[in-house]
Design a protein that fits this description.
Elements: E1 6-16, H1 21-30, E2 34-45, E3 55-57, H2 62-71, E4 78-81, H3 87-100, E5 106-109, E6 114-115, E7 118-119, H4 127-135, E8 140-141, H5 145-152, H6 163-175, E9 180-186, E10 192-199, E11 204-211, H7 220-233, H8 238-258, H9 273-279
Parallel strand pairs: 1-2, 1-4, 4-5, 5-8, 8-9
Antiparallel strand pairs: 2-3, 6-7, 9-10, 10-11
The structure holds 3-hydroxy-5-(hydroxymethyl)-2-methylisonicotinaldehyde.
């Protein structure tokens, strides 16, 4: 058996509501990776459509946690960042990345901060500029179209999206510094939803689309990004991984839609894990 891949997952722990760590840990573990969690904050629930949540920022704990890991000589094949707990964490996480990055470490940054044209409530107007700086360090970034617009200082546009617009955004995002871009929430006609994948080195652009189900389901960005990273670490190309992740996410939404679950409570990705593993050849 190949050496197991170790991922550092830098996200919040939203105790209820299936997103960030409660999604990244099970999906990456199922894909065969070993996950080390660096929790950025602890919340009673995520902040999307739920009110009255608790929020404990863990910025002050991070330096001691990573210092301990350094003392143990821990090394990581991938560093995967998502929802960060504060503006100050952008700088801190950037330092964690440079401290642990080695030749071949895959730095995957999901610039989680906004959706549906709106910044998440915990972030100030200066957050997107700070996130754009963090993205310079990435091998792969996975913004949705709202985050992409914020990263580029462009106004948000509602879909449908023409290829010309999508490719304009991909080129702009590549200019921030990351080598590969996965732009999510792309749709050109209402039946399908997916992502565009751009390799700035080769200039290649591909699309990975799946069937669209109506409704706004929370945590799906994290389901998608975690499934994509799991597939890349299992040896798939980025475009293959994007298609696997798009199908896995669409299946999770379909199941949740059919069960009439509250859209704020997260999607049933768990039941899709056997199929996900089959698509990875595991
Ligand atoms: O899934 C993104 C996410 C992660 N973490 C927290 C969130 C959200 C989206 O709303 O609120 C705390």
């Amino acid at each position: 058996m190949d050496q197991q891949k170790r991922v550092m997952a830098v996200h919040d722990l939203s105790c209820f509501g299936k997103c960030s760590l409660t999604v990244a840990l099970p999906i990456l573990s199922a894909a065969g990776a070993e996950v080390t969690a660096l929790p950025t904050a602890v919340l009673s629930t995520h902040t999307g459509g739920l009110t009255g949540y608790t929020f404990r920022d863990l910025t002050e704990d991070i330096p001691a946690i990573v210092k301990h890991w350094k003392s143990l000589g821990l090394r990581f094949d991938a560093i995967y960042t998502g929802y960060l707990g504060s503006f100050a964490q952008l700088e801190l996480v950037s330092r964690v990345i440079s401290d642990f990055r080695e030749e071949g470490t895959l730095v995957c940054i999901d610039p989680v901060m906004a959706d549906g044209g709106k910044l998440y409530p915990a972030f100030g107007e200066d957050f997107p500029g700070g996130m754009a700086k963090l993205c310079r360090n990435a091998d792969i970034i996975l913004p949705n179209l709202t985050e992409a617009a914020l990263l580029l200082g462009e106004p948000y546009r509602e879909g449908p999206y023409g290829e010309e617009y999508v490719e304009y955004m991909l080129h702009g995002l590549a200019e921030l510094g990351p080598r590969r871009i996965v732009l999510t929430g792309v749709w050109t006609e209402p039946e399908h939803l997916g992502c565009a994948v751009y390799d700035a080195k080769s200039g290649e652009i591909g699309y990975a689309m799946s069937r669209r189900i109506d409704g706004f389901y929370h945590g799906t960005g994290d389901v998608f990004a975690s499934a994509l990273l799991g597939a890349v670490l299992a040896g798939k190309t980025l475009l293959q991984a994007a298609q696997i992740a798009a199908d896995f996410t669409a299946g999770s939404i379909r199941r949740t839609h059919d069960a009439r679950t509250d859209v704020r409570f997260g999607v049933n990705f768990e039941a899709g894990i056997p199929g996900y593993l089959r698509s990875l050849g595991l």
